[in-house]
Amino acid sequence: MNRVVGIHQFMSDKVWKWKLLEQKVAQVLSLHDYQEIRLSVLQDYGVIHEGITALMQEDEAAEAAEGIINLSQPNGDVSLLTLRPEGTISVLHHTAKIIKDRDVHRFYYMGPMFRKGKESIPSEFHQLGVEMLGSDSVISENEVISLGVKICQQLGLKDVKLQLNSFGCQDCRVQFFEDMRTYLKEHETELCAACFKKLYTNPFADTGCKDVQCAKAIGEGPKIMDYLCPNCRKNFSKVKKIQANLAHQYTVNPKLFKNFAYYNETVFDFVIQKNGGEQVIGGGGRYDYLSRMITGKNIPAVGFYLNMDSIFEVMDRRELFTPLGKDFSVYISTQSEDLEMMLLQIAQELHENNIKTLLSTEKHSITEDVALASKAKCELMLVIRDENVREGKILMRNLSKEHQDYIKLDGIIDAILLARKSLNKD
Ligand SMILES: [Zn+2]
Ligand SMILES: [Zn+2]
């Protein structure tokens, strides 16, 4: 049995940070009119396989397919289901069903994705996916790129920078592919076998190779920038100009490659500083040809992903999570079994007034109750005792002011609201 890595299990000490992160992301997306969609974690294996391997050569497709987790059935048969490795394919299928002429759809999704990594070990990772479908204009591309930058900035990652490249269109990339393959053959001895094979199959592949000689040989080879047709060149210039005008820092990185073969024209990465180097925290590009391949409908599209695990880790390290103010809360206890019903009724009345409570479930001495209430950072404590109830009152202790008073049974809410006001927790 393979070990599963990167399992997403967060206890309450981290959940508030995740919620804050997700809320901030959702706020920015909502301002730009992006609608959230919730994709099923279980997906049709055939559909995902077709989408991921679309526009890939045979070797590359086989390798990409290895990363998809295929669920097996108890009888050992191969299942028709997979755990979702990405969201773009489902979004395209969904959009193809609803899109009408000249419609533009803006969608996003957040959640766990699953893939097999090194040595076929399954892994879980959290991703935000943002897709704009139905437009091939330069403005749509810039909206999406700017949105990614904006989200990072809003999360406090002020050093976010863009890396840009263009993969050209179906017309201009043909000559580049041809020249690249000729070049690779001529320089085969200068490259490791893996780089040669990957790049020969897909000249835009990210080989992930750290070999200096490979990098040198690839760096001296043909560059797509020199092959762009007038239209692709014009569009790429526009993207650079608009991003510069928006004061988004960018560099053109001719080595920015993507493993998915479906991208065309503008591709981009979002990078931040890390240990004197750069860390990629997300990226994306235009994928105008994918929909036609897998849905039969022509839907030009552009999108990006953000690696939420990386972003969470960076924000945590940089101490960018500021705890939200604590809710005002009241600790309630009784030492009498006969008064437990009254305790629950008082709690109910408090909840109806949106006041948070913490109920003592065991019999404690006053000293123990004070210690428990203080530990839970409750502001007030109510103690319900027989002798007081008989006189129509209960004890209210103000834990932050170390002061106590008896309050009337028919005036509990008023007394608590007054005390809350004096603590400025309204
Ligand atoms: Zn072109
Ligand atoms: Zn190499």
Provide a short characterization of the protein structure.
This protein is an alpha+beta fold. The protein has helices at residues 12-31, 45-53, 58-66, 88-98, 138-154, 172-186, 193-201, 212-219, 230-245, 290-295, 308-317, 340-352, 366-375, 386-390, 412-422; strands at residues 35-36, 42-44, 70-72, 78-83, 105-116, 122-133, 161-166, 250-252, 264-274, 277-286, 301-307, 329-334, 356-359, 380-384, 393-398, 403-408. It starts with 11 loop residues before the first helix and ends with a helix.
Structure description:
It is a single chain. With 426 residues, this protein is α+β, with helices and mostly antiparallel strands. It folds into two domains: 12-171 and 229-317, Bira Bifunctional Protein, Domain 2 (BirA Bifunctional Protein, domain 2, 2-Layer Sandwich), CATH 3.30.930.10; 329-422, Anticodon-binding domain (Rossmann fold), CATH 3.40.50. 40% of the residues lie in helices and 24% in strands. The protein has 15 helices and 16 strands. The chain has helices at residues 12-31, 45-53, 58-66, 88-98, 138-154, 172-186, 193-201, 212-219, 230-245, 290-295, 308-317, 340-352, 366-375, 386-390, 412-422; strands at residues 35-36, 42-44, 70-72, 78-83, 105-116, 122-133, 161-166, 250-252, 264-274, 277-286, 301-307, 329-334, 356-359, 380-384, 393-398, 403-408. The strands form three sheets. The chain has an eight-stranded mixed beta sheet, sandwiched between helices. A five-stranded mixed beta sheet has the order 13-12-14-15-16, sandwiched between helices. Strand 12, helix 12 and strand 13 (356-359) form a beta-alpha-beta unit. Helix 1 (12-31) packs antiparallel against helix 5 (138-154) and helix 5 packs parallel to helix 9. It is elongated, with a radius of gyration of 29 Å. Bound molecules: zinc ion (ZN) (2 copies). Residues 168-169, 171-172, 228-229, 231-232 line the site of one zinc ion (ZN).
